[in-house]
Amino acid sequence: MTMTGGCQCGALRFRAERLMDNPHVCHCRMCQKATGNFFATLVGVKKPDLTWTRGQAAVFHSSDGIGRGFCRDCGTPLFFHREAGGHVSMSIGAFDNPAAIPLEFEWGIEGRLPQIAQLGHVEGYVTEVDDADGAAKARATNHQHPDHDTEVWPPA
Ligand SMILES: [Zn+2]
Ligand SMILES: [Zn+2]
After folding, report:
1. What pTM does this model have?
2. Rounded to whole angstroms, how far apart are CA atoms 61 and 44?
3. 3-112 belongs to CATH 3.50.50.60
């Protein structure tokens, strides 16, 4: 099944003709730093199945031969790959429909941060309704690319 995605600002868009059967999170420290988050969410796409339909990612070499791609305009982390390898591990959260990509496993479990076990058990729960004015303002002035391909971006 073809799936599309891109960075937050929309300067980069991609299309995957099919996904590999390895959707996972990686808890390693390098993925934490690369995403600025508790873990990376990744699914493999074979290089011939991946098309960049808009823009070209900037790449940081976190190790020799390892490229981590991101948007130079908005900073969204988009992929990780071994440059000599046959596939690219794309950020699941960057897909237009990430809910359609269930996880198969966790990688680097020894680096798993304790906050993950807190999810679902923290004291405070906040919804957008609790900050209706703030949420409405964010929506009204939203610069995020929509979750589908566009002919022209940003809109004229
Ligand atoms: Zn961007
Ligand atoms: Zn990792």
Report:
1. 0.92
2. 18
3. no
